[in-house]
Batch of 3 targets.
Target 1
Amino acid sequence: MSCLELTDAEIIKIAEPMMDDVMLGVSRRDYALHASHFSVNLKSKLGSDEFLSACDQRDTDWGLPGHRELVSIFRKHKSFTLIWNQQYTRTDEEVIAMTTIALKGGRYFVDYFLLH
């Protein structure tokens, strides 16, 4: 099935549990949980040392992740990208949480992740 055919509800049902683990991994500084849904490609770009360094910087700048609100969904044939407004405990700035989930070999994987 093409990801273009998925409804918003279907995409959210796939993406939310993955994003919950990604952000819980950030909160707990747990790379294994954070990366549990990552594609091989994404795991090769972000190792545990880089992850911990990024956690330290985010914690200093923003605090811990809190509530997030879905802003938009973008679809392609083999992937979809979601953008959230991600709240943090120590800042009133708006933080973008973005993830691309790709369909590979019949399974969905987080193929890109960004906090900005």
Target 2
Amino acid sequence: MTKNKGKKKVDEKEQALMEELAEETLVSDSEHEKEEISEVDQLKSEIEEHKDKYLRLYSEFDNFRRRTAKEKLELTKTASEGLTVALLPVVDDFERGLVAFTKEEDQLLKEGVELVYQKLVKILEQQGVKTIEVNEGDDFNDEVHEAITQMPAPIEKLKGKIIDVVEKGYLLNDKVVRFAKVVTGA
């Protein structure tokens, strides 16, 4: 009987060791599966992260490309702005000169000056220069007018309105290059 008891104890110990080993194997197998699953999840999250970075980078580049194209277009539209601004006083002088012709004998000279003036104005118009239309009695608009002085209004309805135009204003492709200088009523 002692042999049986001793064998039973060994069998029980073996049984216990085998169960313990089986549990460890199950635990290690489930840990291994968890590691595989967590690696897969980790790789999926990395892929998503890289996709997100790629989309953001692509969007930034696309915005940069559009912005640069817009800036180039604006630059080509206003490239002649410096020359235009430099020529505007010449146009003003031509207009003043045309008003100064009063004598009958100066008519041929006046016609020649008018011809040169018309050519200059036509060239400026072809380049996108437009005159800002301002009439006496119009409302003052600080986006296109520059008030150089105020005078008492001759009639009540001209208060805060334009009384006189001292110098014409000009637009280059709908951008103000010179404000119209006006006198307003007070």
Target 3
Amino acid sequence: MNKLIILIALFFTSLAFALPEDAKQPIEIEAQSVVVDETTGFNEFSGNAEVKQGSLLLFAELIQVQTNSDGVETMIAKGTLEKPAKYIQSQENQGRFIEATATLITYNVNEGMIFLVGNAHLVQGFDSFSGDSLNYDINNDKVVVKGSEEGTERVKFKIVL
């Protein structure tokens, strides 16, 4: 089956993005299949789904996008342990891309927050973070990592000098 390419003419106008030019770019979504519900604003893209907006990239087997009259509210990327969801974006103050993986990635556009759950891992510059869950504040360049509730998984942080 040929990939379905959808160009959504929505912009993230209410968010101070990592790269200012990203907010001015259209959102492009590519997947094997799509379900669009214009009444509720719920859109589901499945089959190696990819979201691109400027330097922002989001990859997963399934990506759900919730929209409202102002634009995109959230993007939820669902992966597996074998093939986790992935987020990549260039940052103004970093020489390298921010890269994150988890079994579930929720991107709250209005808050400028990325929530990673399940085998969460983030590389920021030359530093890396991992834990059961991880929150990344795009606007303030801040990372919060938590181990598992049961205490079986601890937080790991690596600084390369």
